Amino acid sequence: MQGWSSILPSVSHYLRLTIRPGLTVGKAFIVLAYTVAIVYAGLLKSNPFTQPVRSGWVAVSQVPVVIILATKNNVPGMLLGVGYERLNFFHRYAGRLVVLAVNVHALGFIYAWSIAGTFTQHLTVPHYRAGLIALVCADVLAFFSTSFWRNKFYSVFVATHIIGVVVLLGAICMHSNPSVPYVLIAVGAYALDRVLRFVKTRYAYAHLTALNELGMTRIEVPVVNAGWRAGQHVRIRVLSRGMGWFGWAECHPFSIASVAKSPNEEGLVLMCKKAGTWTTKLFDLAKRAEYGEAGGYQHGVRVLIEGPYGGPGHTLFASFSGALFVAGGSGITFALSAVQDLVQKDLRGESRLKSIELVWIVQDPSMLIPLIPTFTDILSQRTYATIHISVHYTQAGNAQSALKTLSQKPLPKDLTLHAGRPKLAQTLSSVIDQACALSLFKRGAPRKSGAGGINSTGPCGVIVGVCGPGGLADDARSIVGAVDSKRRKQVGGVEIHEEVFGW
């Protein structure tokens, strides 16, 4: 079944255009419609300067919306087939509108009381004091929710969020009794989410390996070998003294880099890039773990694994005729999981794919060295689909030593190394050509299952999966949108799935 992006490619292309990092035209339309609805509800037969009660009710009515969009397991995400991380943008926007409505509600009363000279007198009333506390909590939440605090001081962001929300909800109940049902809905949604997160959490031992060339830590959990789809991620806590006094309390998301029910029984594999304080401590812990110094556990460390979450949702990669995966840096974890899963499905005759292309963009060619065995294993599989992996390095300054090392390691025929950025438009065109050529043996004559995949009568489209920084996703979107309409129709449509760094 074709997605809307294949049925209405022009509309989909324009909706995916980037206005600024993290904001597309499609998202802008949604938040504009939501804003209009909130403003209409706040202004209908009401003047916010003389009747500020209405804005208070608007704020309270949206509290459950904000809380539900903040949970990891929520109904909107299940129905839409998207992970919580894709709804986080709307959670933040709805939260800002709630804070705005709270301030309009409070300032209206504060202004009236100040003019009348009764401000101090009103603050002696308990439910007015509770309202003032709620106002302070809302503003504190808004201040510590900015990107500066989220990116630079994540622990402060989390602590203020937890304390602020608890106090805010309590203050709302004390401020207005009719608001209690809204608070109970929000609390109920959050409680359900916590229960589901507990159910989806596993306690296990993990083996750590420091991948120096990649600047990553490989986490291998052999006892967890099933229960996820390619492209999904888990949230992990490392319970080790080596992570510091409070490092054990931090929970971080990482894409799964292995396939479920792997034949080599390596279990769940994560590859965590050294990008901050916590991941740096994890990398150092992995180095010590190799010598049996990781908190006294010679065979690994204790971890809590929660998930899985996210992933391609309703998109089934194996239902397409061609697949192009583009990964930037640590985004290779998403691509590895997806390609390994497609290889296994191809071997079982459960895939329509005829051509798989993996493009990995790195800074230094030495980053290829640790993954040569993995790539070699993928390419050695006798699949019906053609598989090609190309690695492109963008910095040639320190490349000589790495290239010398790689020259001593024979690479598989379908694994190539190139200098400079890839020409994605040409690569996508090649995947489309192969998908069409290998699919159209005889239109109307279904291919037998097991001889190259599930029954199909022609090209079933091409999927482009991209994982990396926002700029890489923008490039992929632009290239997909530029595909000629005739070729798009010939191949059965070209769709895109994005996994973008940052939040």
From TrEMBL:
Task: Tell me what reaction this enzyme catalyses.
Answer: 2 a Fe(II)-siderophore + NADP(+) + H(+) = 2 a Fe(III)-siderophore + NADPH
TM ranges are 21-43, 55-72, 93-116, 128-146, 153-172
Which PROSITE patterns is this protein grouped with? Answer: FAD_FR
Source superkingdom: Eukaryota
Q: Give the UniProt subcellular location, in the record's own words.
A: Cell membrane
Q: Which UniProt keywords apply?
A: Cell membrane, Electron transport, Glycoprotein, Ion transport, Membrane, Oxidoreductase, Transmembrane, Transmembrane helix, Transport
Q: Does the keyword Repeat apply?
A: no
**CDD domains, from UniProt?**
NOX_Duox_like_FAD_NADP
EC number(s) reported in the record: 1.16.1.9
InterPro entries hit by this protein: FAD-bd_8, FAD-bd_FR_type, Fe3_Rdtase_TM_dom, Fe_red_NAD-bd_6, Ferric/Cupric_Reductase, FNR_nucleotide-bd, Riboflavin_synthase-like_b-brl
Does the keyword section mention Transport?
yes
Pfam families associated with the record: FAD_binding_8 (PF08022), Ferric_reduct (PF01794), NAD_binding_6 (PF08030)
Question: How does this chain sit within the bilayer?
Answer: Multi-pass membrane protein
Span of domain FAD-binding FR-type: 191-315
Q: Per the similarity annotation, which family is this?
A: Belongs to the ferric reductase (FRE) family.
Put simply, this protein is called ferric-chelate reductase (NADPH)
